[in-house]
Amino acid sequence: MRSGMLRAGRPGLGAIGAGAALVMVAGGTTACGVGAGAGDPGFQDCATDPVACNSGERADGGEITWGIDGSWTGWNPNLSAEYTVYTLQVTAPYWPAVGQFDQNAEFVVNDAIFAGEPELVNESPMQVEYTLNPDANWGDGTGIGLDDFIYTWYARSGDGDLCKDCTPAAATAAEVVSIEEGATADKIVITYSDRYASSEWKYEPVLSNPAHIADEQGLDWKHDPADMAAAETYFSQTVPTWSAGPFEIQDAVTGEYAIFTPNDDWAGSTEVTLDKLTLKSFDSVESIITEMRQGTVDGASPGSISAENVAQLAGEGEIDFNVDRGPLWHHIDINVGNEFLSDPALRTAVFQAIDVEEIIARTYANVQSDAARKLNHLYRNDSPNFEDHLTATGQGAGDMELARDTLDAAGYTWDGEGRLLDPEGEAVAFDYRYADGSADRQTMADLVAFNLADIGIEVELRPFPAAELGPTLDESNFDMIAFGWTSQPVIVNSARQFWASDAPTNYGRLDDPALDALIDSLALEPDPEKAAEIGNEIARQVVQDAYQLPLVNTPVAIMASPELVNVRDNWASQQRALYNVAEWGLRAA
């Protein structure tokens, strides 16, 4: 048990606290930048035309430097410790994505790799056929082919017989049975087990790192699980010399910057006009804005934005910006391995004591006045599939009387000094962890500690560097923790990644057989409407487990020089503004 500090006073006002995002990493009123002049639409049309706002003709050539408000520890988002929003952003210009969701949640296939959308060619067992673009390649003269699909299967299988001691961010390939060529060499057929019939088969991530690069390292990844794991480590630690995207890396330092130039072998339909793109890490949004003011950075789509940041941007006539709800949803998670928090009754009371509306009022609402509490883990409040599973339970209500009733019924008591004692008479105490570097995250932490002090719980606030988010989660080095998930508009893999008992990204180690059964049934439901019903059953069960408390879809901002064209935010993409980086350019005169 960790000793801690009891917060006795109500915390002061703060700005937004949108914690560092972990990706699996949407609208409300917007604040448009004042930098857009006549004839320069900037982001002013994004509320009405989010898919095409800030469009225009591009000049031939030019350079863009784009700020990232965090760091990354490696180059392989297959791995749970590297599956962060920052890794996904820095890998976006070269990663072999199947496709992207646009701002209307419509899926657009990556035509640089595929000749058309995946096709369901058999229902039982489920078989999906992919037709490759005949020019699809890794930017080094090697075509994308069967082995590359098999490599990703092994890497993301979660099966030690395929990849020894690997920790995939999500075992999306756990139910793959075979991957074979189809009737012709340009067709790849993936066959799934009888345990998989997902309604979201079209969106499965089937490509990642190139198999031939692993071969060149002398790794027998296809037959030796230890070599397969070594290949994943190699891709993590090695700056990529390959690219399946519109740009390739010319120079990079892990966690600091990556300099890209056009990939001449890219097979996509969009012509790249930029000569150079630099993605650079910064320790704060304030630093990015300062660099933009000085003309050394051209834009950013940070994972968090504060009221102070918005005020700064509003005073800059040469910076366009837009604020809206983003893909990241902030939440508080509990480690059920803690000696006290293993008790569902205590977890329930803890969540009942936390006042989410007050957290929002003192943080997110300072940026977006109508920021609303998130009331479903899997569906946004404006989704047609949304159901409120939280309000009736009192979780997130800041209801101290209800929390005390819950504890009293479970055999908890209080000593003469008001400290909560568990049924064995031990004083309840644990830690709360969050990424430092933000007054807003500190405000949230102070509010949580204050709320829990009201029911007699001693909480130690233990911040960590934002760059350590992945390792902190991966090691379950917390009792309670606040962070964010960014996700696409899908639920099947999200549910498995968040809560399945065997998922490496189930960081609080919840093990609920009933929840596992629901997650398994979701993966077997091909009908989208029935899948949505199961999704809501899953959300209801997570609430019953009192494992994860949703807060809000956090407000985010995009900011850019008026000279940039075809640059816009995308709540439905894990890569945010970088989702369409091939289209970026400098505005034609």
UniProtKB/TrEMBL annotation:
Residues 122-490 form the Solute-binding protein family domain. One of its GO terms (molecular function) is peptide transmembrane transporter activity. This is Solute-binding protein family 5 domain-containing protein. GO terms for biological process: peptide transport. Pfam families: SBP_bac_5. The lineage of its organism: Bacteria, Bacillati, Actinomycetota, Actinomycetes, Glycomycetales. SUPFAM superfamilies: Periplasmic binding protein-like II. It comes from Glycomyces albidus. PROSITE patterns: PROKAR_LIPOPROTEIN. InterPro entries: SBP_5, SBP_5_dom.
